[in-house]
Amino acid sequence: MAGALGRALRFxxxxxxxxxxxxxxxxxxxxxxxxxxxxxVGLIVLAMxxxxxxxxxxxxxxxxxxxQHNPRTxxxxxxxxxxxxxxxxxxxxxxxxxxxxxINRLCFWLSPIALAMVFFYSLTxxxxxxxxxxxxxxxxxxxxxxxxxxxxxxxxxxxVLAPAVLLWVAGFDMIYATLDMAFDRSAGLHSWAVxxxxxxxxxxxxxxxxxxxxxxxxxxxxxxxxxxxxxxxLVVAGALAYEHRVASRxxxxxxxxxxxxxxxxxxxxxxxxxxxxxxxxx
Length: 282
Prior knowledge:
mainly alpha
């Protein structure tokens, strides 16, 4: 049982949940103007985990044949059967929608739309180089959903934060896609690296992350955050600079490590700064 669970977690890259989760939790803290009830925190975390797991399973199933020919992803399908992946997809999609029922009615009615958005990304690289932006849009749903879970309505701060997440994700996905440029080109798939080359992709990623930093400042103003969030932005800037420095070396192993470490630091610094302002200081 433990072995099967471990393989399933590796199949969906569960550790990468740390990317979008901090932005959802940060939006949650701002919306609650402090720490919300533990029941709501648990429901938000569960909804995030279920939605991301469903999205990853959909991605794996949709790309099953493609991934079997990509040297970087060929081992994924030794971890779990296609039938098992479909079952995991359905179970988590149902669990996500069911969880939103216990949050509030608005989240429940919007939950199928959220799933459609996170599923659609997996199909986009078949027809557009803008697939990275669709992935960003899928993850940008997270802070908006967390805000709706707390307040039950749309407000300005999450609508400012969502584009920051979109720009951040699109940027780091462009970097990551450079690892698959040769395969994507031979398979007829689309990416920014295929369209503009490695140098063009890295330059675009830098521009997107610079814009993301500006939008994060605007979010801090809209959310009326303080010194904690300001300090966290310095950490975010350092992590992004490190990621781009490593990416410029074009070392596959180093890029993989920097991809996880730098983006994990970005998310953790973001939520830590908000926690300081909204829970510790308030």
